[in-house]
Amino acid sequence: MKQRVETEKFYPAYPVFVLTYLNEVGEPQMSTGSSSYTLGDTIVIGVSAESNASKHIYAGQKLAVNFPNTEQLGLIEQGGFSSGKRNDKIKVHQIELTKSDNGGVAYIDACPIVLECTVTQTVSDADYHTIFAKIDTRLFEKKLLDSDGHFIHEELDLVLFSGDANERKFRQLATKIETVGGHS
Ligand SMILES: Cc1cc2nc3c(=O)[nH]c(=O)nc-3n(C[C@H](O)[C@H](O)[C@H](O)COP(=O)(O)O)c2cc1C
């Protein structure tokens, strides 16, 4: 039997990312998030309506979704503990950005996986700004790829974010991996 939980939020464990995008004068910005899903070439990201990200990310804009590893909790907190509305996080924390060679926005090369995206649509209400974007390029660090360019599952090290309104935690992936299929 289940127990009903009275909490305003619950995150089962989503991968943490740091968005990079430009403000109205072309200066790079960064914001930490965990609310996303991807399906094929589409990524959907939720940010709060009051965030700096919601102000600058709209249809036609470029953004990069940078996925940090478990050595980069500092970067995650730098992007997520204050708003770009009040300080320039990229400058304050001296975040090294790499220029895109695909017409995209500058990204954080230190992160093991980066998705270069173009925003196709946004849907806003009083609380949330939902961003639909097309994934233009997927950039992986070399150790994540075998000689055929295929993803090496065992090498993936991302930070997951889980918890409820009471407390949220960072988690890491276990290397227990199962093939999909043959379990039913
Ligand atoms: C691990 C982590 C995950 C977060 N996930 C989200 C999220 O999915 N959506 C969101 O709006 N804010 C999220 N936040 C909070 C924002 O990062 C925070 O409000 C930040 O100040 C927003 O920056 P901005 O105003 O410069 O965009 C998260 C923060 C952390 C540390």
TrEMBL record:
Its cofactor is: FMN
Q: Where is the Flavin reductase like domain?
A: 13-133
Q: Which InterPro entries match?
A: Flavin_Rdtase-like_dom, Flavoredoxin, Split_barrel_FMN-bd
> Which keywords annotate this record?
Flavoprotein
Q: Is RNA-binding one of the keywords UniProt gives this record?
A: no
Q: Which Pfam families match?
A: Flavin_Reduct
Keyword Flavoprotein attributed: yes
Domain of life of the source: Bacteria
The similarity comment for this entry is:
Belongs to the flavoredoxin family.
Could you identify this protein by its name?
Answer: Flavin reductase like domain-containing protein
